[in-house]
Amino acid sequence: MGRVRLTEFHEMVRDEFGQMHGDALLRDHVLLELGGRTAAEAIEAGQEPREVWRALCEEFDVPPARR
Q1: ∠ CA(15), CA(35), CA(3), 5° rounding?
Q2: How far is Cα 48 from Cα 18, in angstroms, rounded to an integer?
Q3: Which residues contact 25 (CB under 8 A, 6 or more apart)?
Q4: pTM of the predicted structure, to 2 decimals
Q5: What superkingdom heads the lineage (predicted)?
Q6: Do 59 and 33 touch, CB atoms closer than 8 A?
């Protein structure tokens, strides 16, 4: 997977977790892999959406075929 644009990142989150759950997950779920930040905080701090997506996939056991 190459560079992921922010809009693509949000689409992937919505497709995998649903709109409402995905929004809450980005805003509320703290990921140790992202330095104890939420996905939204990590992106706001400048972390690449691709890295945040990988951390979410690891945390929630998203199957490799859907990563």
Answers
A1: 45
A2: 21
A3: 13, 17, 39, 56
A4: 0.89
A5: Bacteria
A6: yes
Task: Please report, as a single letter, which amino acid is at residue 55.
Answer: A
Distance of CA 60 to CAs 2, 17, 46, Å? 21, 10, 22
User: What are the tens digits of pLDDT across the range 21-58?
Assistant: 999 999 999 999 999 999 999 999 999 999 999 999 99
Q: Which of 33, 26, 12, 45 has its CA nearest to residue 1?
A: 12
**Every domain of the chain and the residues it spans:** 6-66
Secondary structure element (H or E) that encloses residue 49, with its range? helix 49-59
CA gap 16, 38 in Å, rounded: 17
Amino acid at 15: D
